[in-house]
């Protein structure tokens, strides 16, 4: 091999390296901008937090626990079916969000309403309520102690009501909890929800 041939080979290799680095830089996703995410209402933790094992029951009257949060991204909303305002509004906004996502991302996302009113929210009641949204939403509830343990781990606040009163209300916070496919508490979405902005940013979060 002549000196000229060696030089050409070296130059070609160098050009290939430069092209490769350029393509990688162009195609590599831009890191998520935390400020932009917060303006959309999404707040992610630097490190996901563990979620304790809990023993609840689903709207399908089957056992529901931490294992149900593994294998896909989850959005958890703590509310109740007799809620007059915040809950139906939030569930409708979540339906808008899911409908606006690309099909691939919709298949990787599960929305679950966790009822903080187990006294009235039987599996039948929850199943009927969730069917109104026609979005494949899941439901879960259970003993007050188990609910409190899960809510505390996810920084969700609610006040157990006086169930002796007729048509009682349950005070509760309105954030939506974001759980990653490993079943860890990854962050939360602050109300009021912005479905269109969330539909833009959530696929990026799910891709990370």
Walk me through this protein's architecture.
The structure is a single chain. It contains 7 helices and 8 strands. It is an alpha+beta fold. Strands 1-8-7-4-5-6-2-3 form an 8-stranded mixed beta sheet, with helices on both faces. It is globular and about 95 Å long. The model is unreliable at about 25 (pLDDT under 50).
Layout of strands and helices, then pairs:
Blueprint: H1 3-27, H2 34-40, E1 42-49, E2 56-58, E3 63-64, E4 73-79, H3 86-100, H4 103-106, E5 109-115, H5 123-131, E6 138-141, H6 144-153, E7 176-179, E8 185-189, H7 195-207
Parallel strand pairs: 4-5, 5-6
Antiparallel strand pairs: 1-8, 2-3, 2-6, 4-7, 7-8
Helix pairs in contact: 3-7
DSSP E strands, number: 8
What proportion strand? Answer: 15-25%
What structural category arises from helix and sheet content?
Answer: alpha+beta
Strand order of the largest sheet: 1-8-7-4-5-6-2-3
Distance between the termini: 47 Å
Query: Treating each run of at least 4 consecutive H or I residues as one helix, how many helices?
Result: 7
**Based on CA inertia axes, which overall geometry fits?**
globular
What gyration radius follows from the Cα positions, in whole Å?
A: 23 Å
Low-confidence stretches: 23-27
* Helix content, binned percent: 25-40%
**Element-by-element helix/strand order:** HHEEEEHHEHEHEEH
Global mean pLDDT: 90
Question: Could you give a short account of the major beta sheet?
Answer: 8 strands, mixed
């Amino acid at each position: 091999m002549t000196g000229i041939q060696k030089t050409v080979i070296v130059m070609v290799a160098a050009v290939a390296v430069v092209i490769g680095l350029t393509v990688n830089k162009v195609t590599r996703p831009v890191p998520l901008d935390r400020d932009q995410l917060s303006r959309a209402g999404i707040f992610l933790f630097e490190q996901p937090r563990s979620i304790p094992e809990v023993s609840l029951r689903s709207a399908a009257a089957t056992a529901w626990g931490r294992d149900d949060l593994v294998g896909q991204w989850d959005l958890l909303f703590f509310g109740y079916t007799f809620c007059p305002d915040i809950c139906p509004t939030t569930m409708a906004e979540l339906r808008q969000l899911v409908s606006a996502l690309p099909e691939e991302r919709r298949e990787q996302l599960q929305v679950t309403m966790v009822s903080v009113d187990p006294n009235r929210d039987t599996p039948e009641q929850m199943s009927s309520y969730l069917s109104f949204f026609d979005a494949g939403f899941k439901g879960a509830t259970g003993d007050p102690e188990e609910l409190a343990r899960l809510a505390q781990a996810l920084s969700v606040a609610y006040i157990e009501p006086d169930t002796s009163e007729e048509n009682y209300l349950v005070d509760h916070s309105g954030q939506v909890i974001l759980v990653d496919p490993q079943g860890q508490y990854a962050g939360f979405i602050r109300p009021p929800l912005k479905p269109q902005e969330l539909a833009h940013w959530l696929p990026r979060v799910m891709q990370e």
